[in-house]
Write a structure and sequence with these properties.
With 109 residues, this protein is mainly alpha-helical. It has six helices and two strands. Helix 3 crosses helix 5 and helix 3 packs across helix 6 (96-108). The longest helix has 15 residues, at 16-30.
Length: 109
């Protein structure tokens, strides 16, 4: 029997609250993984962007630093969802020096 089979059987016995705790543990274990963020060579200079878009994380963070509200960002970029912004802010927290470098490079360009 595989670990996945064991996990599926165990999940079937858990309450919703216990399943939520399992999700938190998995997210913590994955740590630095951001599946909603992608870096593609040749797209936006290879900078990390929100998936389904060509919106770089550094751009969203730049706007946030200028005081642009999340609701204004969502209105300005109709392909963005609120969860995309939450992902962007988490990515910024996890990769502050990378985002800072990208913002600086854009200012110098």
């Amino acid at each position: 029997m595989s670990n996945i089979d064991d996990a599926e059987r165990l999940l079937a016995t858990l309450s919703r609250a216990e399943k939520a705790k399992v999700l938190q543990l998995i997210a913590k274990d994955l740590g630095d993984d951001f599946p909603a963020v992608e870096s593609t060579p040749g797209v936006c200079g290879g900078d990390p962007c929100i998936v389904r878009t060509r919106i770089p994380i550094w751009l969203l963070e730049s706007y946030r630093r200028l005081g642009v509200s999340e609701s204004d960002l969502l209105r300005s970029y109709p392909t963005l969802r609120a969860e995309d912004l939450a992902t962007a802010w988490a990515f910024v927290r996890a990769h502050p020096s990378e985002i800072e470098r990208q913002i600086r490079e854009q200012k110098e360009a």
